[in-house]
Amino acid sequence: MPTPRKRLPPLNTISAFEASARLMSFTKAAEELHLSQGAVSRQIQVLEERMGVPLFTRRHKEIQLPRAGLIFQQAIAQSLNTIRRAVTMIEALDTSTVTIAASNAMANFWLMPAIFEFRSQYPNIDIRVLASNTPVDPWHEPIDLAIRYGDGHWPNLTKVKLFEEEIFPVCSPSYQSNHKIEKVQDLMECELIEYDSDSAESNSWDAWLESAGFQPGAVRKILTLSNYDLVYRAACSGKGVALAWAYGVPQEDREALLVRPLAVSIKTGLCEYIVYADNEELSSPAKVFLDWLIDFANQSVWA
Questions:
Q1: How many CB atoms within 10 Å of residue 54?
Q2: To which CATH superfamily is domain 92-163+270-300 assigned?
Q3: What is the pLDDT of residues 281-292, one digit of tens each?
Q4: What is the rounded distance in angstroms from the CA atom of residue 292 to the CA atom of residue 152?
């Protein structure tokens, strides 16, 4: 025989508790809920009787949360966030908006140019971009697609490979003309611009030179920057040589703002993927955008 479900406290008492715990005031909670202070106090009392423990410690003109109150507050906050995400996702099911998440660098240098071209062909599909260097989980966030970097070993996600990670040196045409970079050893006489990123260790000069079979000893680095946009600007301005991804230089900038001084490139074995929740049916606009991005990726790599 199935175990009977434990009845939840009345929702109005939970609402009174949530507002009171968040605002740390029965009076402010009453104002927010458009109730009297006495009504809120009575609802909290009913809830405490139902739970069998005090959820607030009452002091003169203030309230505090004991351990039981903190546990209940955290549970309610998590539940409300889950409900809010669900509402957002449900509201987006029948819309023409597609939400995609990507890292800041990917969004800036590859995704945005792709979106501009996509919108010229599909003006009735709106695109919303969530740019964040923290990986976004399609199961827990209101997004349709996410571009994720790594080895592809992520459970409960459908993965579509966009491109392999390929890294090579770039610099401005004037810098190449002035420094005559013809072989890897010539880089030792150049100012090297370093991208310092926890998520892209393979994009460091030490790792790249070692993968290229060159043991440089002390590498001359003039700048170490934690933002790829700054690295990109410094290289375009002729301040030195930077490492770039094959998909990280917009097509209009190739040979104009940046050149590849060497024909040497390194493939790391990692990839950029588009992912979405496993067994989740994508909306028609999301399917169109996904297929289009895959085709665009095949054409946009700097070979």
A1: 14
A2: Periplasmic binding protein-like II (3.40.190.10)
A3: 888 899 999 999
A4: 21
Query: CB neighbours of 259 closer than 8 A, spacing ≥ 6?
Result: 170, 171, 172, 173, 176
* The Cα angle at residue 229 between residues 225 and 231, in degrees rounded to 5: 45
Is CATH 3.40.190.10 correct for 165-268?
yes
Residue pair 220/241 in contact (Cβ under 8 Å)? The answer is: no
**Domain layout of the chain by residue ranges:** 11-82, 92-163+270-300, 165-268
Give the residue carrying structure tokens 């507002």.
19
Rg, C-alpha atoms of the chain: 27
Q: Which two tokens stand for residue 64?
A: 């505090």
Nearest to 92 by CA among 299, 244, 286, 225: 286
Q: How far apart are CA 148 and CA 260, in angstroms?
A: 26
Angle formed at CA 245 by CA 242 and CA 209, multiple of 5 degrees: 55
Report the SS3 class of residue 159: strand
Counting every residue, how long is the chain? 303
CA 158, 247, 104, 221 dihedral sign is positive
Spatial CA neighbour of 77 closest among 21, 136, 140: 21
User: What is the chain's pLDDT, residue by residue, as a tens digit (303 residues)?
Assistant: 555 566 788 889 999 999 999 999 999 999 999 999 999 999 999 999 999 999 999 988 889 999 999 999 999 988 887 787 777 667 666 677 899 999 999 999 999 999 999 999 999 999 999 999 888 888 878 889 999 999 999 998 999 999 999 999 999 999 999 999 999 989 988 999 999 876 665 678 888 988 888 876 666 777 889 888 999 999 999 999 999 999 989 999 999 999 999 999 999 999 999 999 887 788 889 999 999 999 999 999 998
**Contact present, 293 and 114 (Cβ < 8 Å):** yes
CA proximity to 294, closest of 275, 269, 268, 270: 275
